[in-house]
Amino acid sequence: VQLQASGGGLVQAGGSLRLSCAASGLTFRSRAMGWFRQAPGKEREFVAEISPNGSIRYADAKGRFTISRDNAKETVYLQMNSLKPEDTAVYYCAADNGGRYFYWGQGTQVTVSS
Predict the structure, then answer these.
(1) Which residues contact 27 (CB under 8 A, 6 or more apart)?
(2) What are 61-102's pLDDT values in tens digits?
(3) What are the two backbone dihedrals, phi and then psi, of residue 30, each rounded to the nearest 5 degrees?
(4) Other Cβ atoms within 10 Å of 86 Cβ, number
(5) Among 18, 23, 29, which residue's Cα sits nearest to residue 4?
(6) What separation, in Å, do the N-terminal and C-terminal C-alpha atoms of the chain show?
(7) Cα–Cα distances in Å, from 99 out to 46, 51, 55, 85, 113?
(8) In angstroms, what CA-CA distances link 71 with 27, 75, 94?
């Protein structure tokens, strides 16, 4: 199983980034997929997830982030708008296995400057 995250970078506050996570080696369309992040000195935290049937849950209900998936491309996305310096973190994608996130990508760095 491989989860390859990409799309991170340096952006100014208020800007946008779109993260992608390409999956291989698993039955993508039957897995819940999630995004998590870990800021320096902090524990990894949940950002968003999307179920196989498209149900979505976010950690923050304020609507700046949008998760989506393309089963044909076996890819999950995280559109991030109105970015803030506190969004700076390494962002990880993960795939569900048996009700918990078992497979993890390598992470992509997002840095938001003020």
Answers:
(1) none
(2) 678 999 999 999 999 999 999 999 999 999 999 999 988 999
(3) -105, 5
(4) 10
(5) 23
(6) 37
(7) 15, 11, 15, 32, 36
(8) 10, 7, 15
